[in-house]
Amino acid sequence: MLEKARAIQQQLSDWRRDFHMHPELGFREMRTAAKVAEILEQFGYRVRRGVGRTGVVADFGNGKPLAAIRADMDALPLQENNQVPYASQNYGVMHACGHDGHTSMALGAAALLSCGKFPGTVRFLFQPSEEVADEEGLSGAPRMIQDGAMDGVELVIATHVEPTTPTGAIRIKSGPASGGVDSWFGEIIGKGGHGAHPHQSVDPFYISAHVVLALNGIVSRRLDPFDPAVVSVGSLNGGFTENVIPERVKITGTLRYTEKRVQEQIHAEIRRAFEIAHVLGGHYALKFQIGTPPMINSPAASDLIAAVATDLLGEQNILPWKDDLGAEDFGCFMEHAPGAMFALGTGSEGFQCQLHNPDFDLDENSLPVGTAILAETAVRFLRGNNNHAK
Q1: Alpha-carbon distance 15 to 28, whole Å?
Q2: How far is 192 from 295, CA to CA, in rounded Å?
Q3: Cα–chain-centroid distance for residue 64?
């Protein structure tokens, strides 16, 4: 499979560069989705468009078992710095997270699988808006699930480019592989007044300072030290001039976790922190926006990917996972079927820039590697070398 993927490396690069030149933000991937659907139809796939608003679902084969391969398509609101022939042509929008590579590798896997024979069905999920949520707080994965993208799926796999891992290597683990993420939006309500007469006011900044200290103590003083978690303040805004104590201060932030009980405890502790407002004579308002769940790689799916990668790349190129509480809505798919995501090394010399950076680029020699692992993992699952990945 790796030889076959390397034989189409130029096509993979051409696709990737085309997507890179024409990046689109979440739920606006009209051109990208149209091109993906057109290519898949040429390969003989049964294609559904407009899934989860701007997503594409494509099936090949018939019946059970059913394995799915997911690729996200959206870009980020960044102005690209790279001076390359394939630099973004859309001002202020850039593929700085490698989704152009994900989409190209999934198309490559679709091309390879369309030429082979296997029992069951392979399904490709080309997902919109992994990076951002819509007006109802939902990103592309749950939107696609609402439209039936995961109906009947028994295994779902994906990859994500990783610039600090060398090209030709991957990282894979079972268990928690990313954090669940929620957002919180708070407001401290005091009593406004003259800056020269603070005793006649209830200063929301003074109260907010105590609330922020309590928030920053949640992980270190309220949670079990062995529970991965983050509580971060992202914004604190209030006031409009130097000599007026305002009535209100807004505080917003994010929280990360890997277990449901920890998520619930963090919510309770954030509420407890805001209760300080009452002690100090003020009031507060607080609401939570529930985000994506943690990504939990199933042991059998992870083992299957690791076995495939070992056969293709050699055991020395299967590296330990780098634990991280960054969010990835692929976890939504894995609430409906066992699955796993592997990190694909794209960091040869000159390509180590971090994700979400205007200088990010990837080593295109990694594209056949990811393509081959995705295709071969799906084939082995469908042929039964998997214990059904459960």
Answers
A1: 19
A2: 45
A3: 28
Is residue 27 within 8 Å of 54, Cβ to Cβ?
Answer: yes
Asked if 340 and 383 sit in the same domain, the reply is yes
The H or E element that residue 283 is part of is strand 283-290
Residue at token pair 């609430």: 335
Whole-number Å distance between alpha carbons of 390 and 298: 7
CB count, 10 Å around CB of 168?
Answer: 18
CB 104 within 8 A of CB 12: yes
CA atoms within 13 A on the CB side of 129: 23
Distance CA 93, CA 29 (A): 12
Phi then psi for residue 6, to 5 deg, are -70, -25
pTM for this entry: 0.92
Phi, psi of 360 (to 5 degrees): -65, 140
Task: Kindly report, residue by residue over 347-363, the tens digit of the pLDDT.
Answer: 988 898 999 999 999 99
- Structural domain harbouring 270: 180-290
The H or E element containing residue 321 is: none
Pairwise CA distance, residues 4 & 21, whole Å: 26
Instruction: State whether 380 and 261 are in the same domain.
Output: no
- 67: enclosing H helix or E strand: strand 66-72
- Considering the domain architecture, whether residues 173 and 309 belong to the same structural domain is answered as yes
- Residue 333 is classified by DSSP as H
pLDDT in tens, 148-190: 999 999 999 999 999 999 999 999 999 999 999 999 999 999 9
Place of tokens 């997507």: 19
Q: How far are the Cα atoms of 60, 152, 377 from residue 121, in angstroms, in the given order?
A: 6, 10, 13
Give me the helices (H) in 147-289, please.
204-216, 260-274, 276-279
